[in-house]
């Protein structure tokens, strides 16, 4: 067992994180005033090098008791309200956010050696935004969302497929496109901080953190930015 653990540690230590000689340059002196602009530049860079799921982000939430959970989500939009994601309001993450709206999101693009970290407050954008997102989904995704019950115990795969088939039949019968899962929601994380982390070819890293100034409504507050220690 100890020999196995030693092998595991050696193996893990030998795994590469980045191809350092292929990392794109990042000059924090040229960073824009708004972190959303830099995020979108980095997202486009990730798409350009063929990063798988470049719009996937990790979302960490904590419930009222402080219990933390994290999961991967797809970024649906980015505007003055923040970084949007869609999920069911009955899901555990939505329940945690209803108790405690503080959350964090991260993106990681290994081919670029880049990470973005956000901290902030999550807002439910309401029924209309949820319905619009739901109706923009392909029929199979609408059916999956209609099934609901995300993260509840499942007795068998067949039970799920039966529920999914019934939901898909409802979606396919909805020729007018008015059927919406009432609990489907879009949420936006409005950040207090956005940190950009870039690996550099010399085995170092650059970290640039944006912080929202303390006063004014969130969308109007200016950002201050500065380097932080690696
Ligand atoms: C690449 C990827 C994308 C995902 N996108 C979403 C998403 O957009 N919305 C969602 O509710 N779950 C998505 N999931 C599933 C979540 O990671 C998670 O398993 C699920 O939402 C249940 O989370 P919860 O129990 O914390 O509420 C995705 C998973 C992966 C791996």
Automatic annotation (TrEMBL):
Keyword Flavoprotein carried by entry: yes
SUPFAM superfamilies membership: FMN-binding split barrel
Domain of life: Bacteria
One Gene Ontology molecular-function label: pyridoxamine phosphate oxidase activity
InterPro entries on file: Pyridox_Oxase, Pyridox_Oxase_N, Pyridoxamine_oxidase_dimer_C, Split_barrel_FMN-bd
Cofactor note (record): Binds 1 FMN per subunit.
Protein EC: 1.4.3.5
Pfam families: PNP_phzG_C, PNPOx_N
Cofactor(s) listed: FMN
Domain Pyridoxamine 5'-phosphate oxidase N-terminal positions: 52-163
Official protein name in the record: Pyridoxine/pyridoxamine 5'-phosphate oxidase
Organism field: Occultella aeris
Lineage of source species: Bacteria, Bacillati, Actinomycetota, Actinomycetes, Micrococcales
Gene of this entry: pdxH_1
């Amino acid at each position: 067992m100890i020999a196995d653990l030693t092998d595991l540690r050696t193996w893990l230590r030998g795994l590469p994180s980045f191809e350092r000689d292929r990392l794109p340059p990042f000059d924090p002196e040229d960073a824009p005033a708004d972190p959303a602009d830099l995020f979108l530049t980095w997202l486009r860079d990730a798409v350009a090098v063929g990063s798988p799921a470049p719009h996937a982000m990790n979302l960490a939430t904590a419930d009222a008791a402080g219990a933390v959970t994290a999961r991967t989500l797809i970024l649906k939009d980015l505007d003055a309200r923040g970084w949007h994601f869609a999920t069911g309001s009955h899901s555990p993450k939505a329940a945690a956010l209803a108790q405690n709206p503080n959350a964090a999101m991260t993106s990681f693009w290994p081919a670029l050696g880049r990470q973005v970290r956000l901290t902030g407050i999550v807002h439910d954008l309401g029924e209309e935004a949820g319905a619009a997102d739901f109706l923009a989904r392909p029929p199979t995704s609408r059916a999956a969302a209609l099934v609901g019950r995300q993260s509840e115990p499942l007795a068998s795969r067949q039970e799920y497929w039966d529920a999914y088939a019934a939901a898909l039949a409802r979606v396919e019968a909805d020729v007018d496109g008015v059927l919406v899962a009432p609990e489907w929601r879009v949420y936006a994380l409005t950040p207090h901080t956005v940190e950009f982390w870039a690996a550099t070819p010399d085995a170092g890293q650059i970290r640039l953190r944006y912080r929202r100034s303390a006063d004014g409504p969130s969308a109007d507050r200016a950002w201050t930015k500065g380097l932080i220690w690696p």
